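lol so apparently i was supposed to do this last week
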Amino acid sequence: MSGSRSSQSSPSLTYSPLPTRFTDRFGLTTPIALAPMAMASGGALAAACAQAGALGLLGGGYGDPDWIEEEHRRASRLLEADPGARSRLGCGFITWKLDQDRRALDRLLASDAPPQAIMLSFGDPRPYSPDIRSIGARLICQVHTLAQVPIALEAGADVICAQGGEAGGHGMNGSESRGTFTLVPEIADCLASHSPDTLLLAAGGVADGRGLAAALMLGADGALVGSRLWTSAESLAADGAKLQAVGATGDMTVRSSVFDIIRDIPWPAPFDFRALRNALHLKWEERIEALKGDPSTARADYQAGLKAGDYSRIHTPVGEGAGLIRAIDPAADIIRAMTREALERLRLSGRPDPHRD
Ligand SMILES: Cc1cc2nc3c(=O)[nH]c(=O)nc-3n(C[C@H](O)[C@H](O)[C@H](O)COP(=O)(O)O)c2cc1C
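anyway here it is w/ flavin mononucleotide bound
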């Protein structure tokens, strides 16, 4: 880890007790990024994370330009009095959706105060990188295998985010996905040899300070946190769904395409989705071809579940880290606790810690 301070550090919080190249270059006080989770990482959550010193990535998801503009405005408004925190905002997009319609990205890049970072996941980032870089925003590319790294580097990624199969939500399908524990050091070695200036984040299963400390020890410059912050007070996910995650163990999640087929979202290969393995999933997981052939019964069941708030019939999109989530807490508390625990685990707690009350 680097100990130097950044010229871009925020005026409000200028010192990181857990400094890395990621905190230095992004003006953060902790090496954590909020995952840009579709339908969950709205303006309130991104602002809370940015204020707590992390990178707050809005979940631009499937690319609704009005939603993104509104949530970006909300986050900026919430951070009006704290320009340092406002500079810690970013936005993530699902790249294969941008291939169909890129207006949301174009509108955000053309806005008065575009975010400092754009994250692209699930597709080829190269067509979008020139426009992102031309406004001075940093590019974060999420990858799932070592083989995807050269494309991200060709796109000029400032940060590569290595996502292991433990992750909640979408990722590499179950048979091809890699574990975070081996993917991160392998990509760290690859970057050290071929692109030492490119930063690395670990994603997938980082849900407490032990995970954050492990990510740093594996050679990452920080961690992208999804499921744990999905279960925060500010996340836009329904409270009933968050409670399902709090009550679950890591054994209770599964990767498949069941919920994408039921929700009629045509995700391309090689991606699928990790969520809790609930009654609706169990009913269809051995009959995927039949579900594809006639999804009407399952869709009706899902819609009825939505109406009734019955989570045995609706997806709860968390990863294996669910087993480490004990409560729905404010995002700032989660980030503080993760940072503090990581510090303790890394035996750096003798250093001044501005997160301490
Ligand atoms: C509910 C949910 C929605 C997600 N949506 C997106 C998304 O829209 N775009 C994206 O790049 N990643 C998305 N992800 C994946 C995250 O970027 C990240 O890789 C993952 O959450 C990290 O693993 P973890 O959930 O174990 O922390 C999502 C994850 C979750 C849990």
